[in-house]
Write a structure and sequence with these properties.
Number of helices of chain B: 7
Helix content of chain A: 40-55%
Strand content of chain A: under 5%
Number of strands of chain A: 1
Order of helices and strands of chain A: HHHEH
Radius of gyration of chain A: 25 Å
Largest interface: A-B, 59 and 57 residues
Distance between the termini of chain B: 48 Å
Oligomer: heterodimer
Distance between the termini of chain A: 85 Å
Low-confidence stretches of chain B: 2-12, 175-191
Mean pLDDT of chain A: 84
Amino acid sequence: MNSSSGEGRHDDDSALAEFLASLMDYTPTIPDELVEHYLSRSGFHCPDLRLTRLVAVAAQKFISEVASDALQHCKARQAAPVKDKSKQPKDKRLVLTMEDLSKALREYGVNLKHQEYFADSPSTGMEPSSREE
Amino acid sequence: MEPPAKHEEEDEENGPRPPFAATVSRVAVAQICLTVGYAAAEPAALCSLADVAARFVQTLARSGASIAAAHGRTDANLLDLVRAMEDLSLPRGFAGAFNPTTPLLRSSILRELMAFVRSVEEIPFPRPIRRESVRARVSPSFGQMGREPPFGHVPRWLPCFPEAWERSRREGEGGGDRREGEGKREMAKGVRLLGEGERVLLAGRERVCFRLEYCGGSCGERKKKRVGEEAEERCGKRR
């Protein structure tokens, strides 16, 4: 039993070493220069480029997960039966909206709030009779 | 990362431009959204997601750096990074989170990253980004230049003193510590060749004369004359 667990450990370690070596050939979407800029700004000092690529891959994975969750929300909203047929969107293009993004990010602990519109003053849009001047 | 013109230019239509890093992260996040399946994105949503991506990287980096510092190291390594990633993923949860004694190199987060790299196509950034060389600005130290500091209390790892200051000090001492044997500098008709590591200092400028004036009131006029006279006297003395 000990030998099998030892072999398993060896396989895991070799797989990790191969993965780190393969990171040098893999180019993440988030460029190395950008990641290095943020790493140096935050005090993370490591001369190894593989760790920079690992951070880039982790960030790419995180954003992909958030974007795919938002996509699911978008598709669910489009698939829902539309009450008013005139409001049905003619194009089935998938557009990333703040609504879907805030729903997706809420699961990751990020509270994203977006103003629907901005007004000049609290009484903008109210009837003149109800305004107090 | 920042381009040479770091000042944000005021555009009449759009306002000040965003920082370079924010723009690059926006492009990268847009590429990721395209691969996920989106055809377009609202500008506010794209900016927010790019900001979240930048904050994710910074949080990971800060966490990793503090874990390394807690172990008495200035350089972070893979173990620090894996621990930082686990800390960041704790609210959402990951396989094996219940067991804090799981070896870090066998963490499920690393396995998920490996699976992600295998499954996703490689999409590099469309354009190469110019890397700003910060090293060029750092002045070499006494040790790097192979020189001894002029004073005993100055350590060798500090940057060299400006050459003009050293020259004036030597002239003041009457040639106490001449280093012209180095053969790196010539003084001919006011032309000086810069030695290695020497910085250009501004040459002697023309004398500047100011006139300070107050406006308003008889008292102000008196003050005006007094201040103006004082300024002229000072200029006169210097001349």
